[in-house]
Amino acid sequence: MSEREEAFVHPTAVVDDPGAIGAGTRIWHFCHVMAGARIGSGCVLGQNVFVAAGARIGDGVKVQNNVSVYEGVELEDGVFVGPSAVFTNVSTPRAEVSRRGAFERTLVRRGATVGANATVVCGNTVGAHAFVGAGAVVTGDVPDHALVVGVPAARIGWMCACGARLGDDLVCPECEARYAERDGRLEPGGRGGS
């Protein structure tokens, strides 16, 4: 049995051949996965998700309803994308000018969260275990573990890999992992504190 056969594809979804879909992935109502897209194992694509040719989705990714993952966008393993989040792939789109050769890469690193209705402007990287709050607009790179909110998105704190917000002591209130802040970056394994 091929990986495609092991995945669940709802009867209303359209999955173009050839596509690479990992085992255990579930593709729900009214999704469209174009030929040339790559989706890892154990993923969930909610209702009305579009995945373009050339888009890359790692293992264990959850993409909620009404999200389009365009060519040039890569979601690494364990990424969560909230409902109606937006990715772009061209900085200067025009209806009358073809920009197909100008797609910019957008990378969402392992374990990151992009909240509902957030927008990630193309050409930027959302760091590992970062958290983009609902409705935020990401216009620059987001550091690993950063919590960013607003328009444009700005860092207001740090997040543990487990998903809990860190306090000033940089010790996770849920899993007790410790971090240290150095040069505007968060590093695991610290003693806590800044």
Describe this structure in words.
The chain is mainly β. It folds into 2 domains: 3-165, Hexapeptide repeat proteins (UDP N-Acetylglucosamine Acyltransferase, domain 1), CATH 2.160.10; 166-194, no CATH class. 2% of the residues lie in helices and 30% in strands. It has 1 helix and 24 strands. A hairpin with a 2-residue loop joins strand 23 and strand 24. It is globular, with a radius of gyration of 17 Å. The N and C termini lie far apart (52 Å).
Structure described in brief:
2% of the residues lie in helices and 30% in strands. The chain is an all-beta fold and 194 residues long. The chain folds into two domains: 3-165, Hexapeptide repeat proteins (UDP N-Acetylglucosamine Acyltransferase, domain 1, 3 Solenoid); 166-194, no CATH class.
Task: Compile the SSE list and pairings.
Blueprint: H1 3-6, E1 8-9, E2 14-15, E3 20-21, E4 26-27, E5 32-33, E6 38-39, E7 44-45, E8 50-51, E9 56-57, E10 62-63, E11 68-69, E12 73-75, E13 80-81, E14 86-87, E15 106-108, E16 113-114, E17 119-120, E18 125-126, E19 131-132, E20 137-138, E21 146-149, E22 154-158, E23 179-182, E24 185-188
Parallel strand pairs: 1-4, 2-5, 3-6, 4-7, 5-8, 6-9, 7-10, 8-11, 9-12, 10-13, 12-15, 13-16, 14-17, 15-18, 16-19, 17-20, 19-21
Antiparallel strand pairs: 21-22, 23-24
Largest sheet: 9 strands, mixed
Q: Overall pLDDT, averaged? A: 94
Gyration radius, in Å? 17 Å
Trace the largest sheet across and list its strands.
1-4-7-10-13-16-19-21-22
Total domain count: 2
CATH architectural designation of the largest domain = 3 Solenoid
Shape label: globular
The CATH homologous superfamily of the largest domain: Hexapeptide repeat proteins
Roughly what fraction of the amino acids lie in strands?
Answer: 25-35%
